[in-house]
From TrEMBL:
<dbReference type="InterPro" id="IPR013528">
    <property type="entry name" value="HMG_CoA_synth_N"/>
</dbReference>
<feature type="domain" description="Hydroxymethylglutaryl-coenzyme A synthase N-terminal">
    <location>
        <begin position="4"/>
        <end position="167"/>
    </location>
</feature>
<feature type="active site" description="Acyl-thioester intermediate">
    <location>
        <position position="113"/>
    </location>
</feature>
<comment type="similarity">
    <text>Belongs to the thiolase-like superfamily. HMG-CoA synthase family.</text>
</comment>
<feature type="active site" description="Proton donor/acceptor">
    <location>
        <position position="81"/>
    </location>
</feature>
<dbReference type="Pfam" id="PF01154">
    <property type="entry name" value="HMG_CoA_synt_N"/>
</dbReference>
<feature type="binding site">
    <location>
        <position position="277"/>
    </location>
    <ligand>
        <name>(3S)-3-hydroxy-3-methylglutaryl-CoA</name>
    </ligand>
</feature>
<dbReference type="GO" id="GO:0006084">
    <property type="term" value="P:acetyl-CoA metabolic process"/>
</dbReference>
<dbReference type="GO" id="GO:0004421">
    <property type="term" value="F:hydroxymethylglutaryl-CoA synthase activity"/>
</dbReference>
<keyword id="KW-0808">Transferase</keyword>
<dbReference type="InterPro" id="IPR011554">
    <property type="entry name" value="HMG_CoA_synthase_prok"/>
</dbReference>
<dbReference type="InterPro" id="IPR016039">
    <property type="entry name" value="Thiolase-like"/>
</dbReference>
<feature type="binding site">
    <location>
        <position position="145"/>
    </location>
    <ligand>
        <name>(3S)-3-hydroxy-3-methylglutaryl-CoA</name>
    </ligand>
</feature>
<feature type="domain" description="Hydroxymethylglutaryl-coenzyme A synthase C-terminal">
    <location>
        <begin position="182"/>
        <end position="256"/>
    </location>
</feature>
<feature type="domain" description="Hydroxymethylglutaryl-coenzyme A synthase C-terminal">
    <location>
        <begin position="262"/>
        <end position="353"/>
    </location>
</feature>
<feature type="active site" description="Proton donor/acceptor">
    <location>
        <position position="235"/>
    </location>
</feature>
<feature type="binding site">
    <location>
        <position position="31"/>
    </location>
    <ligand>
        <name>(3S)-3-hydroxy-3-methylglutaryl-CoA</name>
    </ligand>
</feature>
Amino acid sequence: INLNIGIDKIGFYTPHTFIDMVKLAEARGVDPAKYTIGIGQEKMAVSPVTQDAVTLAANAALRILDEEDLEKIDLVVFGTESGIDSSKAAAVYVHDLLGIQSRARSIEIKQACYGATAGIQLAKGHIALHPESRVLVLGSDISRYGLNTPGEVTQGAGAVAMVISADPRILSLGDQSAYLTNDVMDFWRPTYSDTAYVDGKFSNEQYISFFLNTWKQFKSQTDLSIKDFEAMCFHLPYTKMGMKAMREIFVEGTSEDEERLTRHYKNSTLYNKTVGNIYTGSLYLSLISLLEQDETLKPGDRIGLFSYGSGAVGEFFTGILQPEYKEALAEAEHAKLFAEREEVSIEEYEEIFSEVLPVDGSNLQLTIENDPAMICVAGIEEHKRIYVNKN
Ligand code: CAA
């Protein structure tokens, strides 16, 4: 069995519009420092009606796949909690939109924000059995709590796409992993609701408790401790959350460990601060932010990863940075994506938020000219979403 399996490519996509959190705070009559410091968010991606979980994921994958990937990918795993269909997997649409060869398995996985991590673990097993294969793992979501709710400040939209392979160029994933399931109602979304229900304080407590449990379990499974980690990346519903969890383990290390992990943590939150919560993709957006924005990391460094999906499943695992990791990143693409985004006013955001696809089965045709994304939703005809690849 080939144990050198991991992330060979990683890219993301976020919609072209965003709002400024200071302006949101002003509109809601809240001290802006609560949002920018207390929560730790600066901008929030706003998804137009012409994007959904499928198109966000397809747009993310489009940025990283080449012809060889399209021929070698034989498993597409789509993690999401913003599914568009109760039966058909979002992965099947993406498989078609990208032109992946047909001898492939395409499935959707659901467990709140944990879905993409489940996809990676499944991919590792698949590659161990079929070392020549490549697996496309997607994490794509639109986070919606509703206007004027406490969760509003922690919304966002976007997707991460990863190619998992043998001898990966970016991050080799360790074979040790610590995971935990416990049935708790901290955050959920019944099938009749397009916004999430959440017990905010309880969800923060569960997140930290799952982190401490899996961290302890991981240490007992390995001979690793806090000093062995150059950096740690967290699922980031908002950027303060990971720090709240990480500081709980600082007592186990020296002040040097605390300084190092805190310094890297800042870089791992830069992208998330301007995108918001993208649920399944958030941990991996944080990893992209760290790898692209941190100039002090080097090949051989060990990075810890904590995934949390409310409800709840948590997992702590690690990866080792590979020699050519910098060259394998899509940094310039991502810088361009951020630079081309447009700010919308709070009034415009509220209007965009209320524009949703009909849920009564009626047809609708959308204008996609205003959405610069390559792949868009063009409407609904006879209960089928119409996807367009402008290429
Ligand atoms: N200046 C600086 N800081 C301020 C401030 C000010 N003027 N006013 C308040 N703050 C601080 C508070 O002290 C607090 O900090 P600490 O948490 O460090 O104590 C922080 O801002 C938030 O303040 P509140 O706790 O009063 O905020 P809130 O009650 O409005 O709710 C929230 C915050 C619970 C995160 C809410 O936004 C929410 O429910 N969000 C959705 C749920 C969520 O993201 N949960 C995370 C864990 S679950 C998960 O990870 C899965 C997932 O993706 C959903």
